[in-house]
Amino acid sequence: MIGQSTVLAAEFPPSVEDFYLPSILPWGAHESYWFTKITLLVWVTVAVLIIFFLVAYRKPQLVPTKKQWLAESAYGFVRNNIAVEMIGPKGVAFAPYLTTLFLFILLNNFWGIVPLVQLSPNSHIAFPAMLAVISYLLFIIAGIRHHGFLKYFKTALVPPAPWFILPLLIPIEFFSNFLVRPFSLAVRLFANMFAGHLLLLVFTLGGFAMISANAWLAPVAVVSWTMTIALTLLEFLVVCLQAYVFTVLTASYVQGALADEH
Length: 262
Description:
By secondary structure, this protein is mostly helical.
């Protein structure tokens, strides 16, 4: 059996197609190819957040219940420590979006360390890219509404510098403010979640592979699984940190769009 698996692996090496998960629906596979494990996890994340806040605020009380306290704590953390801290008093208006963004990324990241799931939707570039596009449009629209169309782009693209160096600086500012920002937002989140997913898979499946190859390698397999536990704890920190970083950077970009000076 092992020899046959080795031959099959040699004949059919991994390819890019392996990253496209099959449909999980038992019917209409061709029409429902889009409904994969990733799609299901995103839907579960959205459902959990909506249901949680609806239940938490169904009957708000002056002395909050545990669910109400948890919901208010999550919103208060983002509002006070990210929105107001980064943007100022105007940040309160952006707190609902930033809270939703933070919790959505956090819960989607968390799937990467859940046993038997161990796959974050953010390990596929499409989801971080879409979140980056939404944040990108947010700070541009906020800047235009605050300054006006022409003044916003003048503030964003024309730094206070001598006129003769502006032809060099303006393209750099455009590249930095309008191209690098959404790209870096998406790639940072994607790369961290993708790398964490691969590491956990390597050490988890590596232990089983060693035992299957040779029973004498069982002690090494135990070491591999111990590393999986240690990496899961580390990945938990990465899960929280990446959600925080993405939200903080979004707030920072909004603050820059609302600033009166370059």
